Amino acid sequence: MANKGPAYGMSRDVQSKIEKKYDDELEDRLVEWIVAQCGSTVGRPERGRLGFQVWLKNGIVLSRLVNSLYPDGSKPIKIPDAPPTMVFKQMEQIAQFLKAAEDYGVIKTDMFQTVDLFEAKDMAAVQRTLMALGSLAVTKNDGNYHGDPNWFMKKAQEHKREFTESQLKEGKNIIGLQMGTNKGASQAG
């Protein structure tokens, strides 16, 4: 980690493509949501990818964010009184956030890995995870989401349909247009 030198060749190309996916406007929206959700006690980061990474790096802001999405008495993450200073404790705090976000409903493919945030390898992945978490919070509509609901897209929800037995029987008599028809057809064409 500390002895990482500059990247050359293909490694540099790959890293630059990853860095281009980072969205500064999305960062502003996510910061506004986190501050609205957790309160002003979390502070604000310096603008830019590095400031955003430093703000989230110890895992405390992320833990407060996911805890704020749960009702009082059922907080999934224990937040230490003093922010962790040791590297493995900070990474452990981030890992607890990831576990709690997965339990909240964020799918695995939307999750970043601890090293993506801790070493700023893929801050766009961190943004995607926070967007997925915000979208779930808006969709659940359980009163724990704070902020503008237009910041995130609602996830599609199931719309179950119920049919009576007579409706199901009537449907068996209808030939849909997708199935075609053989009226007037013969082997001759």
Automatic annotation (TrEMBL):
SMART domains: CH (SM00033). Coiled coil: none annotated. It holds the Pfam family CH. It comes from the Eukaryota. The keyword Magnesium does not apply. Gene3D superfamilies: Calponin-like domain. Keywords: Acetylation, Cytoplasm, Muscle protein. It is found in: Cytoplasm. Residues 24-137 form the Calponin-homology (CH) domain. InterPro entries: Calponin-like, Calponin_repeat, CH_dom, CH_dom_sf, SM22_calponin. One of its GO terms (cellular component) is cytoplasm. Belongs to the calponin family. This is Transgelin. It comes from Sakesphorus luctuosus. The lineage of its organism: Eukaryota, Metazoa, Chordata, Craniata, Vertebrata.
